[in-house]
Amino acid sequence: MKDFSNAVIECVPNFSEGHNMQIIKQITDEVEKVEGVSLLDVDPGKATNRTVVTFVGNPKAVIEAAFQAIKKAGELIDMRHHKGEHPRMGATDVCPLIPVSGITMEETVEFAKQLAKRVADELHIPTFLYEYAQANPARKNLAEIRSGEYEGLAAKMQKPEWKPDYGGTTFNERSGATVIGARDFLIAYNVNLNTTSTRRANSIAFDIREKGRQKKDEKGKAIKDAAGNAIWEPGLLKSVKAIGWFIEEYGVAQISINLTNMYDTPLHKVFDTACERATARGLRVTGSELVGLVPLEALLEAGKYFLRKQQRSVGVSENELIKIAVKSLGLDELAPFDPQKKIIEYQLQKLSAKKLVNMNLQQFAEETASESPAPGGGSIAAYCGAMGAALATMVANLSSHKVGWDARWEEFSNYAEKGQAIVKQLLSLVDEDTDAFNQIMTAFGLPKNNDVEKAARKQAIEAATINAIKVPFKTMELAFQSFELAKAMAEIGNPNSVSDAGVGALCARAAVKGAYLNVKINAKDLEENPIVKPILEQAERMNLQADEKEKEVWTIVLSKMK
Predict the structure, then answer these.
(1) Does the annotation count 86 as an active-site position?
(2) Whole-angstrom Cα distance, residue 321 to residue 316?
(3) Catalytic residue among 82, 86, 207, 431
(4) Which of 17, 403, 455, 525 is least surrounded by Cβ atoms within 10 Å, i.e. has the fewest?
(5) 247 torsion bin: left (phi>0), alpha (psi -120 to 50), beta (else)
């Protein structure tokens, strides 16, 4: 059986309680008690009377934490007295599992089924499977399963087509039912309107959602086909589910959206389309909010989109892109938006060991100067390369904003975007180089008491060493790529910053040659290895060519400074 100890899945249960923080805390306490699980986000909503919780960990730990949370919710939440704007059918209304790393969707489905069966068997809460965990196409959609909500659940479960997947048809008055499944990452997103009308919010929701609206005649009567089924007019946006509601807490109507595939329809397209449809109906979008966590990529792409609309360079820092996205989408209208708390990748970073790139300049210098052998020359070479690429990127951004060069903004934006990509990769190599060194040290520390252990230790040392060769080689490749950027900026960039392009080339040369030394020293006992040999040959070529590339840029820079 596959070892899932290093796999990571995300769980995002929705609990039918948004007012009583003591109840919410007792539920999330159950999650935090489970070793191997990290609670990332707790997002209660008063008007919806619902709390979205996000946690991650290895699959076995996650389904244990989910079970304990569902159990506690069943003890504390009485659905007979529950009211809220959001559709719901149970104390734990829905509990999706999302594969993050080291696990496939098919494998995640099996864990979802294990959880659903245990909830039904041990807690006597009927469970329905949905999305990838559900084999029946007619029962995959959460909205279809939840149709009729808690109030219609008892009768619905008696219908053969809606018998729960686990737990029989006996209605649990207190806890209702729970929907458990496996799905792709979903963005829960609300768009704020300058109206209190739920009907008008719904009209925009029907405009944009993929399902659209029922087709009606001029008298407002639903049109049906020959079989008596409703005819639907598709909406504008694929992979978008939406409804309108009024949020008393904020005093505004919202379009409540589930974006099930941000590649089919990006977040910024949802927002802009909602704005267009609101304007067409005499309304205005005033902002928006994210419920739970959002992938970093969604905000970065939104930031680039809005910068392009302004004809500004998109080759700016990650932080700047997020800032532009937050302001453009109005994500801070109802409450402050903290990227460190709302972006899933940033939350996951907190769980990892302290990174060198998160240190300030003084801390990094002091750590380098300490008695520890790492960070060493490889990490410094990567950082030097990042600074070189950053300087060339700076010239590109300055050039895109130069007075009189407005028509060339996109040309320089493209250069800046390429530069930012190189910077980001080189910064990641600062830590990767140190990690590679530590892996070698770990391999040398393996036991060698017998022939089997000795063979395993030797194999581990060789594998770690090859990795420690590949990492600085990657630094060489990336730093070498930045020569072209530095050269272009020296030739055609803002002449007032030509010296910066020159310094960037000097940093690139130092990075290439510094990383080359690390490739060489790590490869000294593996020069004939079939994996290492071609790497060495390419490294030799780049090492020699780096001098020529830097000289080309240097010559251009000096000629421009006369």
Answers:
(1) yes
(2) 7
(3) 86
(4) 403
(5) beta
Joined together, the tokens standing for residue 491 give 């030739």
Instruction: Name the phi and psi angles at 6, rounded to 5.
Output: -100, 0
Report yes or no: 107 and 2 within 8 Å, Cβ to Cβ: yes
- Identify residue 422 by its one-letter amino acid code: I
Fold of 187-348: Alpha-Beta Plaits (3.30.70)
Question: Could you say which architecture CATH assigns to the domain 357-560?
Answer: Up-down Bundle (1.20)
Q: Locate tokens 């300490």: which residue?
A: 370
86 DSSP assignment: S
* Contact yes or no for 397/316 (Cβ under 8 A): yes
Beta strand residue intervals within 22-78, DSSP E: 37-45, 50-57
Between CA 52 and CA 188 the distance in angstroms is 10
- The pair of structure tokens assigned to 104 is 């496939």
**One of 207, 433, 435, 500 is an active-site residue; which one?**
433
Superfamily name and number for 8-182: Formiminotransferase, N-terminal subdomain (3.30.990.10)
Torsion of CA 184, 238, 43, 34, to 10 degrees: -10
| DSSP conformational letter for 48 | T
Cis peptide preceding 375, ω within 30 of 0: yes
Q: What are the start-end ranges of the E strands in 228-382? A: 232-233, 240-247, 252-259, 285-291
What residue ranges do the domains of the chain occupy?
8-182, 187-348, 357-560
pTM, two decimal places? 0.82
Rounded CA-CA distance 555/559 in Å is 6
The enclosing H or E element of 99 equals: strand 92-101
Question: Which pLDDT tens digits describe the chain residue by residue (562 residues)?
Answer: 577 877 889 999 999 999 999 999 999 999 999 998 999 999 998 888 999 999 999 999 999 999 999 999 999 999 999 988 888 999 999 999 999 888 999 999 999 999 999 999 999 999 999 999 999 999 999 989 999 999 999 999 999 999 999 998 999 999 999 999 999 888 999 999 999 999 999 999 999 999 999 888 887 788 888 887 888 899 999 999 999 999 988 899 999 999 988 999 999 999 999 999 999 999 999 999 998 889 899 999 999 999 999 999 999 999 999 999 999 999 999 999 999 989 988 888 776 666 888 889 999 999 999 988 889 999 999 999 999 999 999 999 999 999 999 999 999 999 999 999 999 999 999 999 999 999 999 999 999 999 999 999 999 999 999 999 999 999 999 999 999 999 999 999 999 999 999 999 999 999 999 999 999 999 998 988 999 999 999 999 999 999 999 999 999 999 988 7
